[in-house]
Task: structure prediction
Amino acid sequence: MTMGEKLTILRKRKNITQEQLSEILNVSRQSVSRWEMDMAFPETEKLIKLSRLLECSIDFLLKDDMQEDPIHDVEISANDCCQFIRECGYFFLATSVDGQPKLRPMGMIYSNDMNLFIATDKRKKVYSELLNNPFVELASYNLNTRKWIRITGKMAVESSNQIKEEMELIYPMIKQEYIDHDEIFFIIFKVMIEHVSIA
Result:
């Protein structure tokens, strides 16, 4: 496990946001984000403060092979999943049709803090596939951090107008593509997350 992964997990255990941690350490939020993505490294002074704040040794943070504290089974939120995938710019959705896997690239994903949502078109095969077998896996790869996310779950049609409006704000192409009568083809699915792994 890398220093960035340990830092992320320990920070979340303390219920500290990246912004709060940046204020405590007197650095920018971008600095904290870069540390957690293993794109930069904290200075010695900051490492000392981090070890005190997160209640772990500096050696534990620095050495990849040290497992001083059980750091598994930390809950990864729907927001964490969404942020990871949006940084990647795309994700793959795997469905199962007649016992055969089907994989396709997707783009529109959203989280409202509690749940994860994806959008598609009722005229696409994926719509009928999800209705026939709602069990799916989503996956995405971040080229910068070289990490994968895998999300296993079950899909359910989401009919909330609020979720639709929030997705339209993030993805203006929804309004451009689905106007007037074509709007009946636009569909949102809620991802009922069963398991998430980032590696």
Remarks:
- The longest strand covers residues 186-198.
